[in-house]
Request: fold
Amino acid sequence: MDQNRSRDVARMFDSISSTYDLLNHLFSLGIDRRWRNAAIRSLRLEAGHVLLDCSAGTGDMALTAHKRAAGIHTVLYDPAHAMLSVADSKANILPPSSYRLVRGVAESIPFPDSTFDCFTVAFGIRNFADLRKGTQELFRTLKRGGIGAILEFTPDRSRLIDRAFQWYMRAVMQPAGALISRDRDAYSYLSRTVQSFQTTATLETLFSEIGFRCKKTRKFSFGIASLFILEKP
Ligand SMILES: C[S@@+](CC[C@H](N)C(=O)[O-])C[C@H]1O[C@@H](n2cnc3c(N)ncnc32)[C@H](O)[C@@H]1O
Reply:
């Protein structure tokens, strides 16, 4: 694993943590809430379940999960300290014993095999320094029969939508993101990684090679984002 890359990416997220939520909802026009709800619904959460929210960032997936299912326990896991601090301040509406914040990278998850009933990774896997290793760790720490939901931007969308999305990133997201967050590099990193990430088919092949059963893949908003629903057989 490239530890320098991991450290640089985490630092970059730390630097934009205070404006991350605002820009996230602004740029997605709030549509990300619908995507997140669909991802959480696919987990079929029940009271007593232990959920790993990998790449938890500012905690929106975990909060969505707790709104949907009472009595779950969540580990919010992320390498960026300042992102987790924002998550912590938002999570204070939850019972303190229902969640834990843990710092670290997906490539080395500090929990024993078969710890979690389910996991989510929302817009996180494209940041993994080693995608295969990170995904193997998600597999290892999931219980048999457990479900994982991975939400990510994927580049295989129709040409017209791709052009419109590229224009939107270049003309709106990058300049506005740089201005509001005061971090030009972060928003050019975000749009670069969104454009150059793996296709849906390549990701499905990787997930199957690791041992997951790909239960379903859903495309949202004309293919801008994809939701992979995975099971550990
Ligand atoms: C785009 S944010 C997504 C945050 C949140 N899941 C959401 O949906 O808003 C990506 C997150 O991935 C985290 N990240 C970066 N490198 C990582 C790694 N190697 N393993 C796990 N998470 C990582 C970042 O710190 C950041 O919080």
In short: The pocket of S-adenosylmethionine is lined by residues 6, 9-10, 13, 24, 54-58, 60-61, 78-80, 83, 105-107, 122-124, 127-129, 134 (CB under 6 Å). The helical segments are 3-27, 31-41, 60-68, 81-90, 131-141, 159-181, 184-196, 200-210.
